Amino acid sequence: MIIKQAILTRASRRADKSVSISFTTSLEQSTSEMAELDGLFQQDCVVAIKPSDTPFLDSELSDLDSIDVDLEDTTKTPSKRLRSVLYILWDQGVKDVEFKEFYKNRMERLIEQIKNRLT
Fold first, then answer.
1. Are both 10 and 48 inside the same structural domain?
2. How many helices (H) and strands (E) does the chain have?
3. In total, how many domains does the chain have?
C-alpha cells in the first residue's frame, strides 16, 4: 500500500462519465518512491480521499479492505462502448470528416483486420 500526503489539483469529467483526477504530492519523492508509483501505472487501484485533518475511521478502513472491484461496464453493450470510444478518438482528432463517416471507416478497417486474421 502506498500512502502519500497530496493536494487534489484537478478533477474533470470525461466523455464516458468517468472522472480523471490528479494529485500533487506535498513533498519531493525519492527514486524508489517514484518507482513504486510507476509499478502501478495503468493498474486498477483503490483510492480513498479525505482531508488531511480528518483521520480514517476503523469502519472506513474495514470498508477499504472489503472493496470488490468489478470494473465491467454493464450499462453499455460492447458495441455502444466501441462507438463511444471511437467518438472520443474522433473528437480529439482533426475532425476532417463528420463522425458518421469516421465511424463507418474505422469500423470497416476493424472488420477487415479481423477478417484478415481468419484462416
1. yes
2. 4, 2
3. 2
